[in-house]
Write a structure and sequence with these properties.
The chain is of the alpha/beta class. The chain folds into 2 domains: about 110 residues, Cobalt-precorrin-4 Transmethylase, domain 1 (3-Layer(aba) Sandwich), CATH 3.40.1010.10; about 150 residues, Methyltransferase, Cobalt-precorrin-4 Transmethylase, Domain 2, CATH 3.30.950.10. About 30% of the residues lie in helices and about 20% in strands. Strands 6-7-10-8-9-11 form a 6-stranded mixed sheet, sandwiched between helices. Strand 6, helix 6 and strand 7 form a beta-alpha-beta unit. The N and C termini lie far apart (about 45 Å).
Length: about 280
């Protein structure tokens, strides 16, 4: 079935916002937010900080997973009346493990134009920086917390592409341990945290090595897990030890700790940049 866009001037803009560093906001995103008739935000308190920083003072409405079923039709009616809306989430691109899909679907059904701006999303830099194949990948986002969790992992056991997961820091170790049960302790993995923030960190190695690291070092911040596929050809180069991978961007512990023969592939990188940014 061919979808036709209505001739009205109404439009829904899906606007990515920074996942950590306020400087990752694009010029176009700022302009769209300033020109929109109203802005839909996942958390108005969080978004208010961003909007104030860029001197954006438009109408701000709440649109999150707990109320989106009720607010979608109200938004569509306003758009059909000729208004323009901008949808933002707390961080990243709306619709990617965040509210957005339902509204976009309804706009498409009603012939309302939808434009998604390119911009920040956490998994792309985590994937590209992982050292694992990123030409083909599978995005899983957050796993089910309880029912269906292990069955979902079993279904991914023979997935040949790199697999992307989101996880909270408090569940990270448990999740990695479940990965060991399903994928084996030698499967390669990269865990990225605090993407684009001052303390950005990438921990790479086998599942066994990375579980040991985060068991000893409490994980903090937003987490992206990149798991190697089942094809078995995605292994980190043993020469990329903690001392040779990026000497100027190692964690405090890594500066005083040599890579051991038993732990040759575990690489910890921290993206501090040349200067500290007050925005995190």
């Amino acid at each position: 079935m061919v979808e036709f866009v209505s001739a009205t001037t109404s439009k829904l803009y899906v606007v990515p916002t920074p996942v950590g560093n306020m400087e990752d906001m694009t010029f176009r995103a700022v302009r769209v937010l300033k020109e929109a008739d109203f802005i839909l935000a996942e958390d108005t308190r969080t978004s208010s900080v961003l909007l104030r920083h860029y001197d954006i003072h438009g109408e701000l409405l709440s649109h999150h997973k707990f109320n989106e079923h009720e607010t979608v039709q109200q938004v569509v009616r306003r758009l059909e009346g000729g208004e323009t809306a901008a949808l933002i989430s707390d961080a990243g691109t709306p619709g990617i493990s965040d509210p957005g899909f339902l509204l976009v679907r309804e706009c498409v059904k009603h012939g309302i134009e939808v434009q998604t701006l390119p911009g920040a999303t956490a998994f792309v830099p985590a994937l590209v920086s992982s050292g694992l194949p990123c030409d083909k990948f599978c995005f899983e986002g957050f796993l089910p917390q309880k029912k269906g969790r292990m069955s979902r992992l079993e279904a991914l056991k023979d997935e040949p592409r790199s697999i992307v997961f989101y996880e909270s820091p408090r569940r990270l170790v448990k999740t990695l341990q479940q990965f060991v049960e399903v994928f084996g302790e030698e499967r390669q993995v990269s865990v990225a945290r605090e993407i684009s923030k001052v303390h950005e960190e990438h921990v790479r190695g086998s599942l066994k090595e990375v579980v040991a690291h985060f068991t000893a070092t409490e994980p903090l911040g937003e987490i992206v897990i990149i798991l190697a596929g089942s094809n078995g050809d995605a292994h980190f180069n043993a020469d990329l030890s903690m001392d040779t991978a990026c000497p100027s961007k190692r964690t405090k512990d890594a500066r005083t700790q040599e890579a051991t023969p038993q732990d040759p592939q575990l690489s910890i990188l921290m993206g501090t940049g040349k200067k500290k940014n007050k925005y995190k």
